[in-house]
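Risk register update: the risk that structure generation would not scale has been downgraded. Supporting records follow, first protein first.
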Amino acid sequence: MKKEKAFAILFALTTIILTQGFASAQNSHDYKVDISPSKEVFQAGENISMRISIFDINNKPVNEKINITVENTQTGKSLEYTVSTNNEFNINLGEGANSGYWIVTVNYNNEETKALFEVETEEIAKLELKGESLKVTNIGNTEYSRTIQLIIGNTISTKNPTLGIGESVEYRLVAPQGSYNIKVTDGVSTVTQNQVSLTGTGQAIGAIDERSTQRSGITGGISPNAEDDIAILSFMKQGQLVYVFMLVIVGAFILLAIERWYSAKGKEVSAEKA
């Protein structure tokens, strides 16, 4: 009797599980989900337009709000949105959104549907000239490593920053004291500014990474045409030492002359008294 009862309970549970599984499987196919981006490839910074259509077993549209996930396949960055079905909509991946493939995932009625779209790579920076300062900011969606050409007056130099998405670097422009016409370009972006007042020492002309000024142990000789920031700083520092040394020598000569003058004057007074 106990065996028969146990068997009946087991049979009932098995029947319930199988029935629920069948109902679930049948229910999951009662709806058709279709994800349709407006195109396969989008430009960097462009809004992503798409349409998500849901139809029931009778092929009638199901209109409601659903949650979707958009994930970058390279970085794993994931964004969530709430959208309306059966209507075209736009989503913004945000400033500097990574390039490459993105996956759109819709979970509806226990069924998962995915689709792909691609965002093009854009290596671009914002160049800003503010007085003696040049700021370079990566506003693209990939690492920035373009060569920047800097023209101060008639002197041309280059910089090769490496910036992650959203990162920036500031340079201090140096030259012998005077006003200069300045042009900065990386082949894509260009900025110019005329009659910029710059100050410096010696004949060094160029741009110094502000982060270099925080380093210690700046020593060694350098020519003014060198590109290394530390070298330019060292050259400027040596120029300052030369000027200080010259001032000390001039001051010593002045003091010596004064001392000799007072000594001669004292001898004249002593001779008159005698």
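Supporting record for the second protein:
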Amino acid sequence: MHWDRVRIFEAVATHGSVREASEELGISGSAVSQQLRKLERELGQTLVEPSGRGIRLTAAGSLMARHARAVDRQFRQADEELSRLSGDIGGRLRIGGVMSALRTLLGPATARLVAEHPKVEPVIMDGEALEFVELLATRQLDVAIVEAWTSNTFPQLSSLTAQLILDEPIDLAVPADLPDRPRTITEAADLDLPWVVCPPGSGAYQTVTDVLRQAGREPEIRYRISAYPSQLDLVASGLAIALIPRLARESAEQRDVTFLPLESPLRRGLYLMTRVGDDRPVVTEFGAYLMRQRELISAADRG
């Protein structure tokens, strides 16, 4: 049995989608489908079948998936132990990161890591903390950058560790031509403008809803958009107001947006999450490059 085909099948079984498996593996969807068909012929079993827009496992596929995941865990464990033994910095590094950290923190740090250690193969996905915690715990990610807002944090598991990378203030973003200058979230809600926030499960969404509901108000959240540049486009167009972490303000270049400090300050922390005991050189070095990039950001803020 060809291991690469089993690995591809394991990715398909995990995601329930050829497209998502191809994105994780960095190969085309047609190549994934071709390898699936070859594995089915090799086993003499049908492993997957169509289900709506995706696929689902057959009984044989579910059985094969359990064994494939067990073998995958053994291979990854062997790779981790060999990396520690040799001290070599290389191999695939699966990284999760909140979108706002990609441009100024995660992207530059990863680029420098690869430049210094060309054997490293980064695979990056964006998302939210709840998803990343699960993917780390099940060894589908190696590291993740997650956010914790003043009123919203991420799940704590004994198998995972979190290191603070960056602590930053959160400002209220309003259209530049707005005559009013609200000082609190409640005052901002009195404006004739709806909110644009990240989707449910995010710190921004939870913060806006918690603060206003505690004040007996139901927030008008008309736009749910993960990307802060797109949020700021709506603010600049006079369509919405938003809460923007300081790191995301770089994307406000040449936009007609005014940033207002809040009377009751809000803050956001960015944390590097890893599995307890995962001291592979590539993981340790990635953390070091993140901290260096953090220092560059802090120096730029100090002017």
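The chain has a mean pLDDT of 87. On this basis the risk owner (M.S.) recommends closing the item.
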